[in-house]
Amino acid sequence: MSYPEAEGNPNFPRIEREIIKRWAEDGTFEDSIKRRPRTTRAKSNEFVFYDGPPFANGLPHYGHLATGFVKDLVPRYQAMRGRHVAPRFGWDCHGLPAELEVEQEIGVHGRDAILEYGIARFNAKCRESVLKFAGEWESYVTRQARWSISSMITRPWISPSWRASYGRSRNYGIRA
């Protein structure tokens, strides 16, 4: 079997879009998980890898690119060895970065101001703040071929511990 002729002047952005489209249409990531059994010989074949946390309330940058490839090596190696690997891209972070951003955005600072603003309203703003960059993160991770369970629409990466962290991270003693 011979390799196809390479274009003399390839259009890399077009090639990248075609590859990403093919991955999505073929379910490449999902198939790679399905092909590897969770158990073999009545023993677990799973390799669990929680990838995260990314920067909770900001855009990805080149520093994330380098660490992203390193974080991809371990689960990809395990998958190549036949293990069932379903990486979970996680935002198991405390709420402080989002809280600080929201405080600046809405102009409230400190426990009393947050209580006056309303805890539920403040927490909703914090969640909104983090979700603002979710699409960019998912696109970034997909372009690196670092698929994860979170890319499957539901975005389960916002963990219960993260949700519960609001109001406690700054020791204000606030509970929602």
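The record above closes out task 2.4. Task 2.5 opens with a second protein, given below.
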Amino acid sequence: MVWRSRLFDDLDRLRRGMDRLLYSTSSPAYAPAEATRLSDIRPAAPPVNVYESPETFFVRLELPGADKDSLEVNMTGANLTVRGRYAEKSEEGQLIRAERPRGGFVRTVWVSPFADRDAIEASYRQGVLLVQMPKTKEAMPRRIEVKS
């Protein structure tokens, strides 16, 4: 059927146009040297996990190759922001494909308004930044006695 092949041609043209649009607006620090498809483009922010225990909130960011001295961690309200730069390493030869992140990054995540801002600690080991935020007393479970 002729109409069916035109439909798929149109869809393929649309996909290629979207790939070009999204590639042109993505962060160059995460784009490969010769990105031609949307699937070749890396996300613009480092991956993060946020979890909690009964007493503490945890934020774990994967930052392989980040320069420890460039890391900056800030808490504003319930939002945690991490800024930094990946260490620049000179490579020999011409770069054909670049998938490792380069340049600067910023990542902001909502954690909780019940994090104790004065007791936040951060550590960076083996490419992973771990931020620990103890909960405030208001966030802790409180047992309420039932009276008769």
